[in-house]
Amino acid sequence: MKNRVLTLVSAGTIGTLALTACGSDGGGTSADGTVTLKLVAADYGDKASNSSKAYWDDVAQRFQAANPKIKIDVQVVNWNDIDKQVKTMIQSGNQPDVLQTGGYADKVADNLLYKVDDVLSVATQANLISTFATAGQVDGVQYGIPFVSSARAFFYNKTLFAQAGITEAPRSWDDVRKDAELLKAKAPGTTPYALPLGPEEAQGESAMWELGNAGGITDTSGGYHLDSPANVETFQWLKANLVDPGLTYANPASTDRKTAFADFAAGKAAMLNGHPSLIQMAKDGKVDYGVAAIPGKDGALKSTLGVADWTMAFKKNGHKEQIKQFLDFAYTKENTLKFDELYNLMPVTQDTLKEMTTSGKHKDLEPFFALLPQASFYPLGKTSWDSVSAEIKKSIGTAVKDDPAKVLGDLQNKAKAAAADK
């Protein structure tokens, strides 16, 4: 989940872990009936010593020991290269059997993937957290299998809050404004609310605020509705209540998430929306932080923004039953728990969520665990989403400086054009 889950995803290792342009043949059947499945997976490690290759090799070895007629050809690729190399594989007719990466919708549009019903048992499907399973659907049919996840929550600096005489986390937008005003007066030199609407992840910050006003990227029918009255009202509120009074950055449109996170970890920002990687950053910076539900217009949200990476199965080699056996094994609690704990990621299966919630080993993540089952998602099933997301990143930040209705209207026109092209 390149820069999408906990920011632990990095460029990954290079060199020996990178694929050649076409990769190995894989996906074959030997004379004795042994089937080889080609697995291509993204690398969540930031160096060779914690590469995901070791994890997948272990999963493959244990699976092969129990299923000697199925071999797994493991290939792990760093995040910078995986999309390009998978595209090359597809174009050359050398598709993997199983792919684990960041998105699936473009492969569905090209009719490359099995339906999840074909490659996961009923029990394994039932074990997926339902909101994440639904996010893997295109036109009501699931093709994407969630692999790891992240959720967002509200972070605040307890020391700065105490300095300003604030005793609890804000629950509503009005609370945020009032607290920000107190922080500006009582904790000068700090940013009361860090509002990152720069091109790194403006689609995320904007979606969280829109969610707080019953708005969002799409309407109830699934069509883009970026300029809905609720969204326009959201940006009007941000402009009038945080930006114009100087309670956030002077230019949110040029401020990225990494800047906001670094400011919070340095004790320079008092409030922001964040994901679990901010926990360790805050600890490293010796910030006494709190985590709460994201404030909404009229009260704390019961849902949150969810992000996921995905597994998918390709039809070309025709190994449906072998893929099902392997995926059912890969999604057992033993394996999913190991991966989530290895990289400090969030679960997508109910048994692993229960284990991580009740084990007592993940206290810092408990606020996020509580939010996961109610997560809302980007319109991941739309093949136009990548281009629409890019447009949102580029310009939605200007909606808190210029006319929100015009900025969002322009974005809506671009979104409609992108959808019409797909």
Automatic annotation (TrEMBL):
It comes from the Bacteria. SUPFAM superfamilies: Periplasmic binding protein-like II. Gene3D superfamilies: Periplasmic binding protein-like II (3.40.190.10). This is Extracellular solute-binding protein. It comes from Kitasatospora herbaricolor.
